[in-house]
Amino acid sequence: MTQAKRVQSLPVADGRTGIRHVFVRDLQLLCRIGVYRHERRKDQRVRVNLDLAVREGETADRLAAVVDYEEIVERVRRIPAKGHINLIETLAERIAEACLVDERVRTARVRVEKLDVFPDAASVGVEIERFRVG
User: Fold this and answer.
1) 25-46 burial, b for 16+ CB within 10 Å, e for fewer?
2) Rounded to an integer, what distance in angstroms lies between the CA atom of residue 122 and that of residue 101?
3) Does the pLDDT value for residue 116 go beyond 70?
4) pTM, rounded to two decimals
5) Which one of 2, 44, 53, 113 is CB 3.0 to 4.6 Å from 123, fit for a cystine?
């Protein structure tokens, strides 16, 4: 019998651990994404969901004291604006990297879904989780 692999989950939002979660739900973007010829000719609708485990800092009521979700969304919007991406996995990785730019972000969980691939499916996509090293 093999031992079960221990899986580390996202840090829990808890005052004792100093972690809070910043999230963005159902952000829709237009992207040139895909490996097929027909996907290179027109934009596709993509939905992005983010869950960022953030190290809490000072408790002042100032924007500089928190991870600014508007700044995160703007970084995410700039990624597809740079040009065609072959794989949805690549888009998810680039989004995770953009989220981890802020050193307070410990973990980024990114879900990216293409919305118009199959008429009988709401979406197809990928979800990744990336951790800050160190």
Assistant:
1) eebebebbbbeeeebeeeebeb
2) 31
3) yes
4) 0.86
5) 113
